[in-house]
Amino acid sequence: MARTEETGLKKPANAVVILLDSLNRHMLGAYGGTEFATPHLDRFAACATRFTNHFTGSLPCMPARHDILCGALDFLWRPWGSIEIWEDAITYELRAKGVTTQLISDHPHLFETGGENYHVDFSAWDYQRGHEGDPWKTRPDPSWAGAPQLLFDRHMPYDNSRGWFKGEEDFPGPRTMGAAARWIDENAGHYDRFMLFVDEFDPHEPFDTPEPYASMYDADWEGPHLIWPPYIRGAIEKGIIDERQAKQIRACYGGKLTMIDAWFGKLLDALDRNNLWDDTLVILCTDHGHYLGEKDIWGKPGVPVYEPLGHIPLMLAHPGVAPGTCDALTTSVDLFATLADLFGVEARQRTHGKSLLPLLSGEAKSVRDWLLTGVWGREVHYIDGTHKYARAPKDSNAPLAMLSNRWSTMPTHVLTREQELPLPDDRAFLDRMPGSNVPVIHQPWDESDAVPFWARAKFTGNHLFNLSEDPEEERNLAGTAKEKELAEALESALRELEAPEAQFTRLGLN
């Protein structure tokens, strides 16, 4: 192990990263949650550093993975995409360094148009099939009637996959965790250095589990379980679901959370069996949370990034570092920087993260003063550890712009690509990405153009919250003198990142 001279703390040789999708911080026992059982996540927290001020960066799924694997914020430039031609995932640099890397995942977006190329530079990758929209089977198991549904009157790819899961061990989440545990058992000690990246889609919807999990938190429910949550603000108020259905949806999330927690425990057992804690950095993270009725918001609709979605869990177990908490402000791109620091590599693209290793060693008390988070085409959020400022468009949500050489948007199964995002047209021009001389297509759009659904949702103005005094975000301080100060800080941050001028115009910051 390499030694950090300033502190004497040794850098471990290996890393295991476990990303659980849509993991709600406030529902974990380690963060004070009591609603659902998470004994193995709590077990890990007991031997790790638990970060208390960790926030999302780019949202949702694939932009967040771009943050983690490429180290560069994504949402200021494009809505959803793969690795661009001017950048490399950390796995490319690790391969050049002789580090063995393994991806084990059931995340379907990694293998769809628009999410491609993240897996190709791993030494090996293992895709466990059948989750959510994965087009795994062309027809359902004839002995199975189909998965229960909510608010979908169309056929879903999951309907073809679901009947092929005969028992708990056949569901994609358990298969993914089981494969990760086997990889550790079969490969620990065979490589000088390795990184195992487990990208687990649970507890993301569909919140479909076998018994006992399906009824664990709502034993009195009768009928098919409600495994598909709506994506909407005001679902109960608008009559989309009633209070009883709301309880059931939330309970189904809890069942999936407890199931994947149990299988996460098997991965921890493999780390125990192979004595990896002495030479391995283990990271437990997520891409974002998931609204389950907080403020009557469900799923990930077009609303500001409130705490349940954006304030996310992060735990790191580093050899030689005593368990505890870290209150420093951190965000998703910092995970890339941490892995790059651990393995001694640098990326060719401009990155935006800060290594967390100095926080673990005690060399530093903080690594950043602010962060930005958001969804392309939505509010841009500035967070400084005390305040969250969500800046909405000044007038119409225009101009929007995309800078990319890989033209794609969030994949859907009901819309054509033209309905979700137009192709480049005669308004496009060549530009460059900050930190790169590679020409890039810069495409502007106005309010008449089709854009991803979240950018079409209504805005409710600017929002400013003092998170230290108002963690429930009930008192909007927009319009006070504090907003002017934070608007200036946001503009300065966007200038530092060289955000497109369209962002300043759209947000009324120029």
Describe this protein with a few key phrases:
510 residues; alpha/beta; Alkaline Phosphatase, subunit A; 2 domains; 8-stranded mixed sheet; 5-stranded mixed sheet; 13 helices; 25% helix; 19% strand; disordered N terminus
Helix coverage percent: 25-40%
CATH H level of the largest domain: which superfamily? Alkaline Phosphatase, subunit A
How many strands, which pairing sense, and closed or not: the largest β-sheet? 8 strands, mixed
How many H/I helices? 13
Give the DSSP E fraction (strand runs of 2 or more residues): 15-25%
General form: globular
Distance between the termini: 50 Å
On the 0 to 100 scale, the average pLDDT is: 93
Identify the CATH architecture of the largest domain. Answer: 3-Layer(aba) Sandwich
Structure description:
This protein has 510 residues and is of the alpha/beta class. It folds into two domains: 14-368, Alkaline Phosphatase, subunit A (3-Layer(aba) Sandwich); 372-507, no CATH class. It has 13 helices and 21 strands. The protein has helices spanning 39-45, 61-70, 90-96, 157-162, 172-187, 243-273, 307-310, 333-343, 357-361, 417-420, 453-456, 481-496, 501-507, and strands spanning 2-3, 10-11, 14-20, 49-55, 58-59, 100-105, 124-127, 194-200, 232-233, 280-285, 291-292, 297-299, 314-317, 324-331, 371-375, 380-383, 387-391, 400-404, 429-432, 439-445, 463-466. The strands form five sheets. An eight-stranded mixed sheet has the order 7-6-8-3-10-13-4-14, with helices on both faces. It has a five-stranded mixed sheet with strand order 5-15-16-17-21. A three-stranded antiparallel sheet has the order 9-12-11. Strand 1 and strand 2 (10-11) form a beta hairpin. Residues 1-6 have low confidence and may be disordered.
